[in-house]
Design a protein that fits this description.
Layout (H helix, E strand, L loop, with lengths): L1 E2 L4 E5 L2 E5 L8 H8 L18 E7 L6 E7 L12 E3 L13 H8 L9 H14 L5 H7 L11 H10 L4 H4 L4 H12 L4 E6 L2 E6 L2 H10 L4 E3 L5 H7 L7 E3 L9 E3 L3 E5 L4 H8 L4 H8 L4 H6 L2 H7 L6 H7 L3 E6 L2 E6 L4 E3 L2 E2 L5 E9 L5 E8 L10 E10 L2 E9 L7 E2 L1 H7 L9 H11 L10 H18 L8
Parallel strand pairs: 1-7, 2-6, 8-10, 9-10
Antiparallel strand pairs: 2-3, 4-5, 4-6, 7-8, 11-12, 12-17, 13-14, 13-17, 15-16, 18-19, 19-20, 20-21
């Protein structure tokens, strides 16, 4: 049953905050700064790049015994997504006795702050990291900070501060959230199966079950799905356009599961990219590396694989890996489900095969099979937090030194990420020595229309398309296939 005109309710430092309908159509950042007077959280870029706005969003664990925190870019998150959750901002960290959190103390002691604009975001990122990794290594700290820009300090004092803070007693590092937990249990008990939050002209529907979601979309085929909000949030901030009729997937528990289906993993449409990264780390290290360079940890805490696929950007990073691995999509419209190969999903630039009211339920990712090798690499100007010039992925087998069953895919070369059958044909049946750069160049020229782009010239992209494949081919004999 749908409950109309619900107020958004969330927990903030031991109290339930109830947003009035007039305020519900705002981002979490705007709500914090403009309605709650919590101006510690800063707005830098308003597009997920600088990290000045990072806060921690808490969710009750399944058994209700603890609260799990994720760092998020509050500039991109819409207020109704907070319903039933808790929020920690930089103002939450000071203890009742006035003592600062160890991360704050260490930032001051090791001169990790100068103008201070980036500091609240950095403090929240590091505090969030230490809720799950109590003694992070230097490289874990650097990874965690890849979404926080500081133009003053040069990062060394910030990294030193993180390592210094992690030496504090665990009970000092752990967020004080016992009162929050009790309130979160209360909110969970009173949650509606399908809530409709309305701000003037801005409906926001949040179902909790798959059938309720499917029925709603069938009746409202023009509605816009909202998953991790890292694309939609940009639309709201940069085009000042709050999509009419948003439908939030985050409360549908079935969409948040990863299922082991034997030969493949069924990754629900609301599973975050950070969870996918963990899933593929052992099975597909190159895919994990592409995901580790996808946005930043707070972007990946909410962004989803399904959102990346549905958004359909020509330079979307997960698709080359998924296409090379032969991923399929589980789609649903009303009560009807179908499975579609990802390679048949795109019908043009940012166009796809979804029918009105149809949505992605899950992405089916094949597990590594004996004898297969998977390679993938993203090329961008910066290592972290940058957009691809191109990303290339290849799966193959070697039989008596010859490549077979090659699947090769790219982003950045065509209106949508795609396989490259002409390049596959150059490699299939050959040994590494028999694959020539000239034939690959010819296949690139026959497969794609030359187009210079903002991120790279066509000449550069075409060279990358050939050289990445040559690298995979030349390294093939030194790599072990899956046993
Ligand atoms: C700072 C920043 C860095 C980024 N870095 C990268 C990067 O390195 N590589 C890259 O590829 N992208 C990057 N992105 C883009 C973005 O993060 C990804 O496209 C992300 O995967 C989108 O997922 P989401 O869950 O946030 O989607 P949302 O913003 O929630 O939705 C995106 C689109 O998908 C639709 N949609 C969502 N779920 C479904 C579903 N289940 N069925 C049908 N349609 C659906 C929505 O209606 C919307 O049109 C970046 C974005 C930002 C802001
Ligand atoms: S304001 Fe820059 S990431 Fe949010
Ligand atoms: S201290 Fe000035 S931006 Fe970091």
């Amino acid at each position: 049953m749908t409950s109309n005109n619900q107020p958004v309710r969330f927990v903030l430092d031991g109290a339930i905050v109830e947003a009035s309908p007039a305020q519900q159509g705002s981002t979490v950042l705007d709500y914090l700064r403009e309605h709650l007077g919590r101006s510690g959280t800063k707005e830098g870029c308003a597009e997920g790049d600088c990290g000045a706005c990072v806060v921690l969003v808490g969710e009750l664990s399944g058994d209700g015994a603890s609260v799990n925190y994720l760092p998020v870019n509050s500039c991109l998150q819409l207020l109704p997504t907070l319903d039933g959750k808790s929020l920690k901002t930089v103002e939450s960290l000071q203890r009742a006795n006035g003592k600062l959190h160890p991360v704050q103390e260490a930032m001051a002691a090791s001169h990790g702050t100068q103008c201070g604009f980036c500091t609240p975001g950095i403090v929240m990122t590091l505090t969030g990291l230490m809720q799950t990794v109590s003694k992070p290594s230097r490289s874990e700290v650097i990874d965690a900070l890849s979404g926080n820009l500081c133009r003053c300090t040069g990062y060394k004092p910030i990294i030193d501060a993180a390592l210094q803070a992690s030496a504090a007693a665990p009970d000092q590092i752990k967020l004080d959230d016992e009162a929050d937990r009790a309130l979160l249990l209360q909110l969970r008990a009173s949650r509606e199966p399908a809530a409709l939050f309305t701000a003037p002209g801005q409906d926001f529907f949040a179902p909790t079950t798959l059938p309720a979601l499917a029925d709603y979309l069938l009746a409202h085929p023009q509605a816009t799905l909202l998953a991790g909000s890292t694309e939609i949030g940009l639309q709201v901030n940069k085009q000042f356009a709050w999509p009419q009729g948003l439908v939030y997937l985050g409360n549908v528990s079935e969409l948040r599961q990863v299922g082991d289906q034997g030969r493949f993993w069924r990754i629900g449409a609301q599973v975050s990219l950070n969870e996918v990264l963990t899933l593929v780390t052992e099975a597909y290290p190159d895919f994990a590396e592409v995901l580790r360079r996808f946005g930043s940890p707070p972007i990946r805490s909410t962004a989803t694989l399904a959102g990346n696929i549905a958004n359909g950007s020509p330079i979307g990073d997960s698709m080359p890996c998924l296409l090379a691995l032969g991923a399929t999509l589980e789609l649903r419209r009303g009560e009807v489900t179908r499975t579609l190969d990802l390679e048949h999903f795109y019908t043009g630039q940012k166009k796809n095969a979804l029918q009105g009211g149809e949505f992605i339920v899950a992405v089916n990712l094949p597990k590594p099979a004996a004898g297969e090798v998977f390679r993938g690499h993203k090329v961008s100007k910066r290592f972290d937090q940058d957009i691809s010039a191109t990303c290339c992925a290849m799966r193959y087998r070697l039989q008596d030194g010859r490549f077979t069953q090659v699947r090769l895919a790219y982003n950045g070369l065509a209106p949508s990420p795609c396989r490259a059958p002409k390049l596959e044909a150059v490699i299939n049946g050959r040994t590494a020595e028999e694959v020539s750069a000239a034939e690959l160049d010819q296949a690139v020229a026959q497969s794609f229309t030359a187009r210079d782009g903002l991120r790279a010239s066509w000449t550069y992209r075409a060279l990358l398309a050939r050289n990445l494949v040559l690298q995979f081919v030349e390294e093939a004999t030194s790599l072990e296939a899956v046993k």
